[in-house]
Amino acid sequence: MVSSRPRAAALLERLPSAPGFWRSPVRGVPFTAVLGLVLLAGITLLFVTGLLSYAAYNPDLAPVNDKTPDKGLLGFYLFPWPTSPHWLYRLTQGLHVTVGIVLVPVLLAKLWSVVPRLFTLPPARSLAHALERISLLLLVGGALFEFVTGLLNIQLEYLFPGSFYPLHFYGAWVFFAAFLAHAALRTPQAVRALRTGGLNGPVPGDVLESPAPAAPTLSRRGALALVGAGSLVLLVTSVGRSFDGPLRRLAVLTPRGAAEPGSGPNGFQINKTAAAVGITTADTGEGWWLTVSGPAGVLRFSREQLLAMEQHSAALPIACVEGWSTSDQWWRGVRLRDLAALAGYPDRPPGVMVESLQRSGPFRRAALRDNQVRDPRSLLALRVNGEDLSPDHGYPARIIVPAAPGVLNTKWVARLTFGEL
């Protein structure tokens, strides 16, 4: 009778928990260390620029903008978002999204490089080891959650209307806490490993190196080059959505890439069309009035009356949370601070609540801070690039504010309420 023990031993050797199961010669502490150091810099940048994006939305200004309720101690980073330089949000959010996309191959390679550790038996050798495994679970799960939800929001805009912001926000705190703990434990080891043996040299006690590696088909340098090439491809095919010209035409993997949506003065990128939010010509025709409220009472203005007021111009971009932006467009209209003066605030304008005609979709109402209203470049725009606004760009009137996220530049404006928000 054949003993079952050899069969059981042979079966165990074929399981992912067996040391000899993972045979790639590329795996090893030096390879993982390089990827980890890249992620340390990149994810830190993502976290900082992500917090800046939440600050730009003015989440402590009014509930209408606040998509992360009950912040508590997590609201320590909030501050009045500035209006200068006017390209600030275009830079910070462009970096946030572009770096996030470019890091995808690095993250996947890092997870591949440490996957044998996820199957190590026993699952926990001590309480400290159990806590380390739990932190790794939070780290891997948090990374996948943050990157997947972020990429989905870029590609399928408004997929999580009203819920993406708290999901991504709180998920980022959980992930980054685990990431910091892991970095504090592993970064010194990674630096020592690279200093000791370089990329290909032996590292004493290398727990990631296979005890029985297969014949090499790719060196570690080659594997890193492959990861870098993947990141470069993603960079070239996505970064152009923040620029005009040839770079935008190369951005074929992200929305707002490739060709411009039209030609002429109104031919630049659009975040949402009039049809998508239920705006019709009946809403924006001769029956349209702008209602302005404040201490002076309720005032109403037709588009002709607004055009008869003193007109001002400003060259400002549109920059959205999905990372795309336009170059500076030449907007012309009535300054918000002049409308605030008509509403009863001639000296120091307060914030304003802006309401749109749109019938569906997020940010039908948005609040702007007092510093945004006071900036002379903040306009109720009536024209762009020398021509009336098109319906998709907000005709008959839209908000344009320097350094503000695109969704706060409300289109199809129906009402402005100055004062308490």
TrEMBL record:
Pfam families: Oxidored_molyb (PF00174)
Domain of life: Bacteria
Transmembrane segments: 31-57, 94-115, 136-155, 167-185, 223-243
InterPro entries named in the record: Mopterin_OxRdtase_euk, OxRdtase_Mopterin-bd_dom, OxRdtase_Mopterin-bd_sf
The Oxidoreductase molybdopterin-binding domain, residue ranges: 285-418
Keywords recorded for this protein, A-Z: Membrane, Transmembrane, Transmembrane helix
The protein's name in its UniProt record: Molybdopterin-dependent oxidoreductase
Organism of this sequence: Streptomyces drozdowiczii
